[in-house]
Amino acid sequence: MANVKGKVLVIQGPTASGKTSLAIQLAKTLKTEIISADSRQFYREMSIGTAKPSEDELSQVKHHFVHSHSIHQEVSASQFTQEAKPILDDLLARNQAAVIVGGSGMFIDALTLGLDEIPHDKKVQEKWIALHETEGLEFLQNELARLDPVYFAEVDTHNPVRLIRALEVIELTKKPFSESRKGKVKYDYDIVRYGIAWNRSDLYERIDQRVDFMIEAGLFQEAKSLFPLRNLKALNTVGYSEFFRYWEDEYDFDEAVEKIKQHTRNYAKRQLTWIKRYSDIVELDPYSDKPLLEQLLSHFNVSD
Questions:
Q1: What are 182-207's pLDDT values in tens digits?
Q2: Cβ atoms of residues 287 and 30 within 8 Å
Q3: What's the confidence (pLDDT) of residue 78?
Q4: Half-sphere exposure (CA, 13 Å, Cβ side) for 194?
Q5: Which residue, among 293, 271, 296, has the nearest Cα to 106 in the 3D structure?
């Protein structure tokens, strides 16, 4: 067995790449638990559209931060870190290692590296909120693309909360938000990162297939039950917002499904951009005859 004592094993990368299955295999092998760092799987009311682990998968390994919060209380990266860090520290103390899995790079970094001390000014924030209300989302997108193209390439450009926060910080610091987020590392975990290196075309095909599966599994009905709550920030999520627009007569059904696929592919592209920042991420080959778990453990033995 690889020497993993005290190590934090992170499996991250784009949606539909197979992270959940690999994380469960790894946690079972190492006799540890999983911390989910998917910023939408926290919410109890959202299951099908967030591709949560199945009940069978959840029964195999203890998962933290799946079904853990309500959409009525949005979880920030800061709150996630405050709640998850004691669990991570406990897992490292009790077990050989801890496994973190998810596609929300900002949440993973906040937990494993620490949070940057970024300023906040309510009046400046309210100014940008008002501009969003009067000028629209496209105005925020254009401003951020002009002022910070690096962060614009990574952020969910359909999420006004993220855009407003970035523009607020840019105004306060007089520098790009992407630079403000490069603060000093506050935590000193022994981190090993893994990603599953699908070809882009194959990843997009997997995404389209997953969306089709979600529709068959009842995503339309799940989204319909949440339509009355559509203004909650947590529901500004791919797979739900497109169907909300269907009921608001902006899309027909087929258009909504195609938009879900398109927006999920766009999200995966941003996730891939995010992981490029890590110089130490180990890419696992899904086309190899050697199973992903075996590749991962083999790398551990070689690197140690």
A1: 655 567 899 999 999 999 999 999 99
A2: no
A3: 86
A4: 28
A5: 271
Angstrom distance (rounded) from CA 230 to CA 232: 6
**Length, in residues, of the chain:** 304
Residue 258 parent element (H or E): helix 253-275
Provide the edge-to-edge strand list for the sheet that holds 7-12: 63-64, 34-36, 97-102, 7-12, 190-196, 282-284
- Check whether 5 has a pLDDT greater than 90: no
Residue 4's contacts (CB-CB under 8 Å, 6 or more residues apart) are: 30, 96, 97, 300
Q: pLDDT tens digits for 196-250?
A: 999 999 999 999 999 999 999 999 999 999 999 999 989 999 999 999 999 999 9
Residues 145/240/246/129 CA torsion (nearest 10 deg): -40
Give the whole-angstrom CA distance, residue 151 versus residue 165.
Answer: 12
CB-CB contact of 124 with 172 (8 Å): yes
For residue 16, give the DSSP letter: T
The DSSP element (H or E) to which 64 belongs, if any, is: strand 63-64
Residue 200: other Cβ atoms inside 10 A: 12
Q: What is the DSSP string of 95-107?
A: SSEEEEEES-HHH
Q: List the structure tokens of 214.
A: 């979600």
Q: Kindly give the interhelix angle for 200-217 and 219-226, rounded to the nearest 10 degrees.
A: 70
Sorted by where each starts, the structural domains of the chain and their CATH numbers stand as 7-115+185-303 (3.40.50.300), 122-180 (1.10.20.140)
Share the mean pLDDT of the chain.
92
8 contacts 111 by C-beta, under 8 angstroms = no
Euclidean distance between CA atoms 15 and 210, whole angstroms: 10
What confidence category does residue 118 fall into, taking pLDDT thresholds of 50, 70 and 90? confident
